[in-house]
């Protein structure tokens, strides 16, 4: 095996498809490559901690043919490698722990595989979907660790001088795991994530994939159909006019509570028959939570009953947690999370911020919490929030709307730690700009902090409608993409498909009732059912909780057809002349 070329790169900023990113993938050939214990002397990495990246002449030829690329357009170093080898070997011939002698005295140990990302597809001008084909092929190159440094030059020979341990994984197999999610691959990833010979980026990648597989396992686990009786175990008053209720299973009920995503809610049926939805305001654990806590402000008929009459020992019927507004930990590497709330809208944020600090995928991501309250005493569980986020990962900005004299305001400032800032009034467009527009950094691989534009943050909004609309506009004004803005208002609002239906006939199969529907009175199917005396299960009435999901037997509806064919009748309307449902 012979060295054809050596090259180096330094981090530079680039832009593609409106996204700005930093990478060292653009390399220039060099006459020599100086290696020391921490890698290439002239080379600076943008995101990972592997010492030397090795690629092969044969791969240039293979991928040029496969992608119909003129080989002359790919100079050595185009793939971002430090060393290009001329050899008939490939990644299957390189195993973890193998030690290679290059030139006279440089010793390199195989330490991992390239896991292709969008930067490579950008560099080679290929669609991102090609990355899976690349990983599946195993032809993505080899990462090596410097055991003994020195100088590498084109023309140097390389030979295997010390094979890795028997049964060591080959580099092609490691690359192929990048896009696998099966149980068999999970067992291998468990082993690799703990292998000290595998370099940090690969180990963290597999740990993240294992975490994602665990999330899939936990999602909705323990969920029950219809209603389940739960007991009010504890009642607290964390703020004036706000009470927190802790629900637990009955003593005779051996089943654990269902898992939920931070930000979701439960539907509670009151003794009067009223059904209300309240956000879960705590995050006791990712799996089999010990309780559900809801924090309720005394407002309408339902919350007033809870506030005035619900006590320890009350048994109420509750549905499994539901809702589309929740913390999103699905990205491979999570960027900054911004939590914006007002008043009782803080309840999902409490759950989200607690999970932020506990969940593997999110726990290294920076965060900002912006909250509006009349005064600090009206923020439920504030001390709990501050205690949970006291290590300064979450920056906190609280806006107080009540009139405070200077002395009281100064006392408020002095009675809290440095990473919380108090302001008078409500957050303006300029406030939002000052808090969020500066670049931030993430360091998911514990190597080199990666700088990201401030507007590339995932934002969650919960509060009164006017607050949500105003804050959403502030975020748009500073360039936050629409897709990165989540809100309760957004989550509960399903856009109806256009329909030209003027009249329709709705049949309820089980109850054997037939009803005429007209656009002159454009009721939802739930409202139509209630009008003829039916009492379908329901909760939120905005298509968010899923309680009203019903099987569609015939016809079509607009606005609320679920992937499994079910219909959320609280937002559905006829989209065909005849509609039949299993009610």
UniProtKB/TrEMBL annotation:
UniProt xrefs under Gene3D superfamilies: 3.10.20.30, Nucleotide-binding domain of ferredoxin-NADP reductase (FNR) module, PK beta-barrel domain-like, Translation factors
Record-linked Pfam families: Fer2 (PF00111), MOSC (PF03473)
Alphabetic keyword roster: 2Fe-2S, Iron, Iron-sulfur, Metal-binding
Domain MOSC: 23-161
GO molecular function: 2 iron, 2 sulfur cluster binding; molybdenum ion binding; oxidoreductase activity; pyridoxal phosphate binding
Domain FAD-binding FR-type span(s) in chain numbering: 225-328
Source domain of life: Eukaryota
Residue span, 2Fe-2S ferredoxin-type domain: 504-583
Protein's recorded name: MOSC domain-containing protein
Lineage: Eukaryota, Fungi, Dikarya, Ascomycota, Pezizomycotina
């Amino acid at each position: 095996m012979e060295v054809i070329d050596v090259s180096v790169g330094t981090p530079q900023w680039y832009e593609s498809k409106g996204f700005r990113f930093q990478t060292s993938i653009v390399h220039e050939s060099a006459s020599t490559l100086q290696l020391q214990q921490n890698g290439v002397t002239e080379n600076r990495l943008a995101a990972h901690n592997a010492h030397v990246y090795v690629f092969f002449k044969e791969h240039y030829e293979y991928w040029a043919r496969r992608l119909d690329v003129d080989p002359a357009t790919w100079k050595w170093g185009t793939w971002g490698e430090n060393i290009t080898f001329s050899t008939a070997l490939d990644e299957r011939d390189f195993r973890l722990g193998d030690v290679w002698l290059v030139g006279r005295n440089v010793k390199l140990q195989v330490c991992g595989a390239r896991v292709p990302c969008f930067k490579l597809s950008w560099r080679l001008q290929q669609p991102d979907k090609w990355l899976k084909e690349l990983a599946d092929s195993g032809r993505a190159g080899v990462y090596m660790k410097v055991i003994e440094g020195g100088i590498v030059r084109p023309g140097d020979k390389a030979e295997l001088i010390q094979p890795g341990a028997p049964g060591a994984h080959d580099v092609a197999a490691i690359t192929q795991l990048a896009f696998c999610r099966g149980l068999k691959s999970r067992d291998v990833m468990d082993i690799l994530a703990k292998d000290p010979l595998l370099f940090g980026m690969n180990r963290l990648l597999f740990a993240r994939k294992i975490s994602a597989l665990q999330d899939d396992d936990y999602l909705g686990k323990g969920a029950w159909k219809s209603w389940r009786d739960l007991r009010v175990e504890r009642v607290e008053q964390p703020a004036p006019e706000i009470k927190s209720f802790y629900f637990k299973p009955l003593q005779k009920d051996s089943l654990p509570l269902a898992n939920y995503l931070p930000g979701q809610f439960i539907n509670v049926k009151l003794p009067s028959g009223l059904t209300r939805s309240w956000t879960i305001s705590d995050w006791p654990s990712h799996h089999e939570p010990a309780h559900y806590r809801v924090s309720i402000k005394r407002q309408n008929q339902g919350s007033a009953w809870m506030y005035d009459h619900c006590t320890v020992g009350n048994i109420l019927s509750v549905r499994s947690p539901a809702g589309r507004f929740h913390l999103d930990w699905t990205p491979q590497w999570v960027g900054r999370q911004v939590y914006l709330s007002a008043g009782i809208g803080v309840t999902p944020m409490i759950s989200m911020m607690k999970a932020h600090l506990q969940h593997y995928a999110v726990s290294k991501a920076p965060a900002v919490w912006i909250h509006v309250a009349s005064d600090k005493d009206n923020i439920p569980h504030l001390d709990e929030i501050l205690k949970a986020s006291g290590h300064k990962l979450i920056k906190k900005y609280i806006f107080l709307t009540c009139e405070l004299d200077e002395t009281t305001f100064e006392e408020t400032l002095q009675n809290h730690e440095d990473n919380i800032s108090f302001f008078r009034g409500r957050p303006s467009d300029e406030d939002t700009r000052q808090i969020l527009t500066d670049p931030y950094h993430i360091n998911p691989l514990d190597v080199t902090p990666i700088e990201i534009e401030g507007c590339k943050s995932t934002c969650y909004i919960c509060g009164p409608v006017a607050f949500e609309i105003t804050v959403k506009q502030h975020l748009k004004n500073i360039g936050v993409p629409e897709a990165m803005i989540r809100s309760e208002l957004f989550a509960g609002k399903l856009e109806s498909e256009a329909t030209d239906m003027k009249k329709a006939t709705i049949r309820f199969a089980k109850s054997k009732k037939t009803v005429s529907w007209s656009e002159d009175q454009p009721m939802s199917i739930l409202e139509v059912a209630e009008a003829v005396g039916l009492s379908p299960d329901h909760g939120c009435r905005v298509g968010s909780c899923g309680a009203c999901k019903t099987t569609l037997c015939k016809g079509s509806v607009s606005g609320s057809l679920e992937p499994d064919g079910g219909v959320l009748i609280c937002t559905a309307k006829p989209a065909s002349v005849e509609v039949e449902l299993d009610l």
